[in-house]
């Protein structure tokens, strides 16, 4: 059974989910694909992982680079997980383009190209926002394109990390 917890951030409410020991979701309360990986019989409860995640988020929103690695379980297709693993490799304060992600996947698979739209869809369905930093993905011209939590939040997260 999934458990959920509510966190108040400077950018609005956040809902977190857990399988009891790992974080399985983190969404802004009004974002697209909200709680897309949480079962309907979830319950709200305090768990140690939620306390750890809250401390991580407190540090992050103070502008610190949290060093702690939280246990994560990414629920999605194998392709989505492949994209999300690349997101996890984007350093704090840095960005990567959708094109760079498609190139990495194509090279890994030994194919000439990869669908940017497929990559964009996988990025948009990332169930653990901020910790799996989909906000660090930008357009090839440096534009802030697409973010399930809203472009204003994406901009503010990148500014917080001094990536803009």
Structure description:
The protein has 164 residues and is an alpha/beta fold. The chain folds into 2 domains: 3-61, 2-Layer Sandwich (Double Stranded RNA Binding Domain), CATH 3.30.160.70; 78-160, Arc Repressor Mutant, subunit A (Orthogonal Bundle), CATH 1.10.10.10. It is built from 5 helices and 6 strands, in the order E-E-E-E-H-H-E-H-H-E-H. The chain has helices at residues 48-61, 78-88, 98-109, 116-124, 151-160; strands at 3-9, 12-18, 23-28, 43-44, 96-97, 137-138. The strands form 2 sheets. A 4-stranded mixed beta sheet has the order 3-2-1-4, with helices on one face. The protein has a two-stranded parallel ribbon with strand order 5-6. The longest helix is centred in the first third of the chain and has 14 residues, at 48-61.
**CATH homologous superfamily placement of the largest domain:** Winged helix-like DNA-binding domain superfamily/Winged helix DNA-binding domain
The low-pLDDT segments are none
Find the CATH topology of the largest domain: Arc Repressor Mutant, subunit A
Mean pLDDT: 93
Multimer state? single chain
Give the helices and strands as they follow along the chain: EEEEHHEHHEH
Taking Cα atoms only, what radius of gyration do you get, to the nearest Å?
15 Å
How many angstroms separate the termini? 40 Å
Structural class: alpha/beta
User: Mind telling me which CATH architecture of the largest domain this is?
Assistant: Orthogonal Bundle
Helix content, binned percent: 25-40%
Q: Tell me the number of helical segments per DSSP (H or I, 4 or more residues long).
A: 5
Main sheet makeup = 4 strands, mixed
What's the level 1 CATH class of the largest domain?
Mainly Alpha
Strand order of the largest sheet: 3-2-1-4
Instruction: Describe the global form.
Output: globular
Number of strands: 6
């Amino acid at each position: 059974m999934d458990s959920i917890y509510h966190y108040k951030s400077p950018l609005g409410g956040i809902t977190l989910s857990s399988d009891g020991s790992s974080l399985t979701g983190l969404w802004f309360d009004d974002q697209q694909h909200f709680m897309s990986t949480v079962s309907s019989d979830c319950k709200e409860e305090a768990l140690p992982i939620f306390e750890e995640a809250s401390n991580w988020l407190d540090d992050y929103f103070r502008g610190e680079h949290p060093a702690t690695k939280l246990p994560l379980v990414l629920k999605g297709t194998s392709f989505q997980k492949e994209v999300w693993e690349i997101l996890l490799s984007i350093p704090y304060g840095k960005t990567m383009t959708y094109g760079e992600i498609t190139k990495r996947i194509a090279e890994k698979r030994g194919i000439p190209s990869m669908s940017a739209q497929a990559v964009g869809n996988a990025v948009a369905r990332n169930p653990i926002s901020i910790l799996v930093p989909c906000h660090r993905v930008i357009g090839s011209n440096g534009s802030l394109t697409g973010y399930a939590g809203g472009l204003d939040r994406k901009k503010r997260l990148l500014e917080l990390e001094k990536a803009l």
